Amino acid sequence: MVEFTAEYHKDWVQHLVFSLDESMFASISPQTMYVCDSETGHCISGPFELCNYGEVYNACFSPDGKRILVGFGSYAVVWDIEMGEEQFQIEGYQFSFIHHDKTIASTHWVDEDRNSSRTIASDASEDEGGSDDSEDGGSTRLLVQLWDASNGALISDRLLEVNDVAVTRFSPDGRFLAVGRKSEDVIELWNLQDGRDPRQFPYPPGNLSSLYFSPTSNILMAVFREEPRHIYLWRLDTHEMVPFSHDFYYEPHVVHSPLTNYLFIR
Q1: What's the pTM?
Q2: I need a surface site. Which of 118, 171, 182, 211 has the fewest CB within 10 A?
Q3: Which residues constitute the domain of residue 181?
Q4: What mean pLDDT comes out for the span 152-175?
Q5: CB-based burial of residue 11 (10 Å sphere; 0-12 exposed, 13-18 middle, 19+ buried)?
């Protein structure tokens, strides 16, 4: 049954994102953003005017639901939902709130001198901002920085720096960054709490296309480019790999139910 219809936008809605407790959702069009109550559809905050910022690539709520971060390519804007005001801007291509220490992690593609070396990732419009630079000739050196989630102050100029990067993905809770290597058939799982000693998940030879985490951040999934596409799953607590093959001729959109053992694939 349809609970409500929220008709606020004058343009097509291109992004929808829920808060962590699902009490609110943000709807984003190329021009505006509204934050609405999930039970009633009533507007809680907004409209936020976006036309002067550029194209929206992704968005996420802070763990406490008081702020929302919207990525615009090479930078992101954080708004205070209660005040309806912009708080600050931070640089980067992908962003994630780290839930346990109230910070924001951002990724940057840099050259050997740590200067920005490329434009927006080719598939950064995916939810949560995956990236694949394997075909556009750009840099493969990734720099991760940390920012104070309350005021946007730079905390760590170099949480970690990784070379030979093809594909990346933040976990939903911000604890991990998964990195697929270009020259090796291995995925590294970096802990964003300390940036040290990545765990490695080898996989059979293949052209890695993208990475996904389950909503509870306990399962990692790798999707391969060749058709038919193959999927591999790892349990992060045991490192157990579960191969899963099916004839996917399009990039699959996958949702893992946190309360069951089911995997839903388009």
Answers
A1: 0.80
A2: 182
A3: 15-202
A4: 86
A5: exposed
